[in-house]
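Continuing the series of single-chain predictions for the mutant panel. This is the parent chain; the variants come on the following pages.
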Amino acid sequence: MAFDPGPVDAPRARFARHYLRMHHPKICPAETDRYVDPGAEIPEAFLSFERVQPLLDDARQAVRAVAVEFARYEFGRWQPPLMALVALAESRHPEVRELVAKALSADEHDPDWRDARIDPARLTPAAVYRFCESTRPEARDLGMALIAAHPRLAVPTELFRLTESPDAGVRGFVVRQLWGLY
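Parent structure:
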């Protein structure tokens, strides 16, 4: 009901989205200063990455806003596949790109992003270099920031491959990284 096709302001859809938000164990206390009654919270199995991922690309802003809010509190639990994160970083919606960038770059001691933080130890050079090869400048910037922040991702052979990038910023970044390595 909350995310069915149709008008975003339909009363049942608005009610269903509000109901889901008020039965989320972290969103409800953050907004209302009261906790969800035991047994009334949304089951973790229901709120899965596979269920929320298509909503992050929904054309309706209200649906996307709820999906971003869920992801903001659940990314850390979901630990989505890295290639799915690359696709989300290339989203046409800026709030989705910002969510992915913050989840991947958040400090482990930042209490505001503790639930959304993606562990950098999971990052692989193959996935990070996919960010750098993106057609979206924001995704390329994220890839370069991740490589700069995590030296283990600065693999010389992969960096050399990026010298063929059409983006002068990526090529300059590669030269600086190779200079630093050697």
